[in-house]
Each structure stands twice: as structure tokens, then as C-alpha cells.
Specification:
With 348 residues, the protein is of the alpha+beta class. It is built from 14 helices and 15 strands. The protein binds thymidine-5'-triphosphate and calcium ion.
């Protein structure tokens, strides 16, 4: 297996820089205001200049303002980041055979069939980085590895604007610190550290029964599988059931201009319900006599909301051309949704 892990650098803050070039070169922090008092709330993320001053995700805004007098504080615009994330994920999805969206700014892509070896995978990753920069103006870090976890760890080590590869797998695994392993919390790390277990090489020296006594059976087998390089969880574009949204028109009609704003609303609302991106879209029309006509389309890549808006109009036109009745309700169904899944899945 060859997996790419793609992680957008200081995501929310980078988007703010992108949209407001005057922020470039200055420390920037994105704030989630709780609204209780003027500055109550926390920092969602910050760019690297602000991080150097000690301003990091999770810090209280009040505290951040104390230590960073010259820092530019901007309010979080989640919908905007979601939209941009969708577009980046759509680009990413074309580079592999399956994609797993892990969070708003992270995804795994299985490139085993697109790249015959690590060198080719590196080349693919390099092109993907350039593609995202050219099309969206954003910098990402990519990790290339023989499984999801190793790809994520090597990406983490190469942030920001980096490209990392696990070429010597055994050596790489030997040197992984427990604190670097995704899905392993502080508590587990402490328990192991107390017993002198710091790296995956140390883990390999243990018997699984003894490790299980310390950290529980599922965590023990997770760590063992990583240490012995048998971890092979697949990149899962887990198909959730179709998600849809229907709206009733103000009058029964066949006039596309009247229907357009309704279908746009249906697409937008269907998208806001899903945690991922669809590869399939259907437009469903409920006719004046309550009969149902639908037209759909499947793709090999994940659709952004914008693209889905365009496709939905095409499909609506097809319905109107193929049927003479007036439409009463219009809906959109999204299918083959690649949903985020986390490494915690392994633990359950
Ligand atoms: P991260 O991937 O943790 O961080 P990042 O993208 O800001 O920085 P980098 O990858 O370069 O280390 O988080 C992704 C986004 O999630 C981040 O831009 C903002 C958001 N986020 C929060 O809203 N609250 C938080 O506590 C964290 C950690 C992130
Ligand atoms: Ca990130």
C-alpha cells in the first residue's frame, strides 16, 4: 500500500492570509468568540509567526492579546473554510483511487495503483502540492508512507509546506516516539514513559499481554501492529447512506428560472448536512400529481458544493425536457459520500 496524507498548513489562518494579502508577513490568530464578553473565547489556530510568539490553538483570546500586542486577531469564518476545504479535497480525490477525509484540513489518499514505488508517489505528491497551490493558493504538507499512520507521522515532521517520505520503513518505525503516534493520548504516553517505553522499538521488545495490561487490549494491538509493521487499515471512503434535502416550490411550475433558487438551496442545505463530499448526485422532482421523477450522475471524484450546484441545474433541465408535468417539490440527494473517519476507529 502507498498512502499520501495531505494536511493544509495552519489552515484557517492561511485562508485569512490568502483573502487579505495585507496580513502576509504578520502574526495572525483566528478567534472563536464565545460572545459572552467582548474578548471571551479561544484561538482556533494561528499562523507560524504568531505561534513563534506562543499563540496557539486553544489559548484564551484574552491571554493571547496580552502576549501578542502586534498580532492581528480575526474572527473565524467557518463556512468559508468549509467551502475552500471542499475544493481542496476535490483536487486531492483525483490523485488516488480512494480518499478518506479525516478532518476539515486532512485527508488520506490511496495511490497504490497510481504509483508503482515511493519515487513515483513522491512525484505524485509534488504535483498535488503544486496543483493545490496553483488552483487554490494554499500550501499543504504531504506525507508519503506504506500505511496511513506512517504517512501522517512523516507529514507531521515536515510541516509546514513540506513533503516527507518514509523510505527506510524499519528504521523509521524504530525511531517513532509514542508521543508521535496518532490516537495515543497523553495518559498512555505517560504510563509507557514511566516504564521506559519511549519508542516503537521499545514496544517491540514487550509481550502483547504485558502491554495490554498497561494500556488496554485495543491500544496494545494498535501499537504492536505499528511496531511490527503489520498495521494495514485501508483508506476508507466510507459510503454513508444517501443524504438529501427537499424543498416545496411556492407554486407548481416548469419554469426553470423559478426553480433555480430552490434547487440551489436544496444543494447547499444537503451539503451542510454531510461530513464529507459526495461522488454521486440526484435531482428528484415531485410532480404536481405527486409522482416522482429523478435523474442522477456518478463521478470518479468527489464533488464540491459549487460543482454540485452546476450539475444539479443540468439534471433539472433534463427532468423538465423529459416530462411535461409541473413540478411541486424539488430535492437533491447526495450519494457515495466519503466521510471522515479517525484512527480511533481502530481502537474500537
Ligand atoms: P490543525 O491541523 O491541528 O492545525 P493547523 O492546520 O491550524 O496547523 P498545522 O497543520 O500547520 O499545524 O487544525 C486544523 C484546523 O482546525 C485549524 O486551522 C483550525 C481548526 N482548529 C480549531 O478550530 N480548534 C483547535 O483547537 C484546533 C487544534 C484546530
Ligand atoms: Ca493542518
Amino acid at each position: 500500500m502507498i498512502v499520501l496524507f495531505v494536511d493544509i498548513d495552519y489552515f484557517f489562518a492561511q485562508v485569512e492570509e490568502l483573502l487579505n494579502p495585507s496580513l502576509k508577513g504578520k502574526p495572525v490568530a483566528v478567534c472563536v468568540y464565545s460572545g459572552r464578553t467582548k474578548d471571551s473565547g479561544a484561538i482556533a489556530t494561528s499562523n507560524y509567526l504568531a505561534r513563534r510568539l506562543g499563540i496557539k490553538a486553544g489559548m484564551a483570546i484574552v491571554k493571547a492579546k496580552e502576549i501578542g500586542k502586534d498580532v492581528i486577531f480575526v474572527p473565524m469564518r467557518k463556512d468559508l473554510y468549509k467551502e475552500i476545504s471542499d475544493r481542496v479535497m476535490s483536487i486531492v480525490s483525483t490523485y488516488g483511487d480512494s480518499m478518506e477525509i479525516a478532518s476539515i484540513d486532512e485527508a488520506y489518499v490511496d495511490v497504490s495503483r497510481k504509483a508503482r514505488n515511493l519515487l513515483e508517489a513522491m512525484d505524485l505528491a509534488k504535483r498535488l502540492k503544486e496543483d493545490i497551490l496553483r488552483k487554490e493558493g494554499l500550501r499543504v504538507t504531504i506525507g508519503v508512507g506504506p500505511n496511513k499512520v506512517l504517512a501522517k507521522i512523516v507529514a507531521e515532521r515536515n510541516k509546514p509546506d513540506g513533503l516527507g517520505v518514509v523510505d527506510n520503513v524499519t528504521k523509521f518505525i524504530d525511531e517513532i516516539e509514542i508521543s508521535e503516534v496518532p490516537g495515543v493520548g497523553k495518559k498512555t504516553e505517560e504510563i509507557l514513559k514511566e516504564r521506559g517505553i519511549k519508542t516503537l522499538r521499545d514496544v517491540r521488545e514487550l509481550r502483547i499481554e504485558d502491554l495490554a495490561k498497561l494500556v488496554g487490549r485495543s491500544r496494545a494491538s494498535y501499537l504492536m501492529s505499528l511496531a511490527f509493521n503489520t498495521y494495514n487499515e485501508q483508506v476508507k471512503p466510507r459510503q454513508v447512506s444517501h443524504r438529501g434535502r427537499y424543498v416545496t416550490l411556492t407554486e407548481n411550475t416548469r419554469d426553470i428560472n423559478v426553480i433555480l433558487p430552490f434547487i440551489k438551496r436544496a444543494v447547499d442545505e444537503a451539503f451542510s448536512k454531510i461530513n464529507g463530499l459526495p461522488m454521486e448526485i440526484y435531482v428528484v422532482a415531485i410532480m404536481e400529481d405527486l409522482d416522482i421523477v429523478s435523474k442522477g450522475k456518478s463521478y470518479k471524484f468527489a464533488l464540491t458544493r459549487e460543482y454540485a450546484n452546476v450539475v444539479s441545474i443540468e439534471l433539472l433541465k433534463k427532468i423538465i425536457e423529459s416530462d411535461r408535468r409541473k413540478i411541486r417539490r424539488i430535492g437533491v440527494r447526495l450519494g457515495k459520500i466519503s466521510r471522515s473517519s479517525t484512527l480511533e476507529d481502530f481502537l474500537h
